[in-house]
Structures are given as structure tokens and as C-alpha cells.
Amino acid sequence: MATVLFFHAHPDDEAIFTALTMRRLADQGHRVVLVTATGGELGVPLFPLPLGTSVGRRRVAELEASCTALGVSRLVLLGRRDSGMPGDPANRHRRALARAAVAGWAGRLADLARGEGAEAIVHYDGNGIYGHPDHVAVHRIGSAAAELAGVTSYEATVDREYIHFVEQHLVEGSGPRSGRPRVGAASVEITTALRGTAEELAAKRLAMAAHSSQIPPDTMVAPTYDDVYGLEWFIRRGVPGVLETLGNAHLFA
């Protein structure tokens, strides 16, 4: 049994980018540890929240429900503040994740990885998949932590060439594709990919649906859901690790 530490920026990122992988690891008897850096306090709810319920509290509750769907063994909340989108004044808040000292937080994450006996740390690619300041911070902290802990690093990403040919992925936003900055990585950069089974896709749907304040419900029932969200992609840094044992979509599609 291996332990894999997943490091994400906000509640819902784990469901969108790595749910299939987390569920497969759990189903195979591995230990899945999820570390979420912020409470996603600056996310805009899709509907009015009950009186007295903050966005942060709601999103953490959604995260806990997602963890149940994905078989997460332990959830760790770092408590940093959501930095908002690029250019938002919240980027400069003293507690914003985007301003977190990489060395200090990488040390804490490495200590957690060592304490859990983790064989790998999953975080984001160098551009944070789509340039979100918190995602870029997760990349910097996660990659430094993996180096400190001496474990394999997997950078969660999306195959930009693949998603160009399917219906719109949430990571691309709601505007027209023309004129948008590039997201993810080129196919040739991706070392490790996983295609979900029907059961794993059902778990991913449940995890994404748990984040009902942020993810539109029609996303999970779209006829193209399996094509858009049925693959997860990673760039491995270091020796092949446990994710390679899960099967590679490029080889076995």
C-alpha cells in the first residue's frame, strides 16, 4: 500500500483535476491524503447561501463531501487565504496563498509527506494549469516540497491539444476559445495519463456535484461529460512511481 499526497489550491480543484486518480488509488488499497491550501473564500456562489453561512464554510463542507466520494483517508486544511484571480487586489493580501513564503510552506508540506510516508506529491504544472495565482503558488510549494522530501513529483495538468477537440472544460472559463491564454500542457509533455472507468467517472461526478456552490449542475449531466472529464493528465518529475501502476491512457486508450 502506497501513500500519495495531493496538494490543491481550493475546494473543487481535487474533483475537477484528480478525482479519477484519487478514486482509483483508494480502490486499490492505497492511502490518499489531500492537502487543500485555501478555503476558496473568494469563489462566487451560484446561488444565495443560507443566512450566516460564509462562502469559506460552505466550500469546506463541500470539500468534505467530495473527500467521501473519492475515498480520501485524510484531509488537511492549511488555512491560507484565497488570492482571487490574476490582477485581483486580493493577490496582495498578507495572508494570500500567492504571497506565501515558498521555503517555509514547502518545508511544512515535506514534513507532512514524510510523516505520512508518502511516495509522491501531486500538485500543478508550472503555469498552475491556467495561470491562477494560487495554482502557481501550489506548483512552487509542491515541487519544492517533493524535492525536500526526496519523492516523485506529479504535476497535474490538462492536455491542451485533447481538450481543444472536446466540449469546453471548466478550466477554460466561459468565454470564446479564441483569444484565451493557453492552458495545460502539450501532449508531448505529458508523461502519465489515466482514463476513468464507469465507476470512477460516477465517483468523479459525485465529487464535482458536491461542489454545488461553484460547479453548475448541468456540467455533470452533459452528454459529453465522459469525453471532457474522463481523462486526467500528469507531468512526472523524478523516477516512475505509483501513478504509473494505475495504467497509462496514452498506451491503453
Distance between the amino and carboxyl termini: 26 Å
Question: Helical residue percent?
Answer: 25-40%
Task: Please count the beta strands (DSSP E, at least 2 residues each).
Answer: 7
CATH superfamily: LmbE-like
Quick description:
The chain is α/β, with parallel strands linked by helices and 253 residues long. It has helices at residues 13-27, 55-70, 102-116, 128-131, 133-149, 160-163, 198-210, 218-221, 225-229, 249-252, and strands spanning 3-8, 31-38, 74-80, 120-124, 152-157, 192-195, 231-237.
Question: Topology, please?
Answer:
Layout: E1 3-8, H1 13-27, E2 31-38, H2 55-70, E3 74-80, H3 102-116, E4 120-124, H4 128-131, H5 133-149, E5 152-157, H6 160-163, E6 192-195, H7 198-210, H8 218-221, H9 225-229, E7 231-237, H10 249-252
Parallel strand pairs: 1-2, 1-4, 2-3, 4-5
Antiparallel strand pairs: 5-7, 6-7
Structure description:
Helix 1 (13-27) packs antiparallel against helix 7 and helix 2 packs antiparallel against helix 7 (198-210). The model has no long low-confidence stretch (mean pLDDT 94). Helix 1 (13-27) links the parallel strand 1 (3-8) and strand 2. The chain has 253 residues and is α/β, with parallel strands linked by helices. A seven-stranded mixed β-sheet has the order 3-2-1-4-5-7-6, sandwiched between helices. The protein has ten helices and seven strands. 38% of the residues lie in helices and 17% in strands. The chain has one domain (3-252): Rossmann fold.
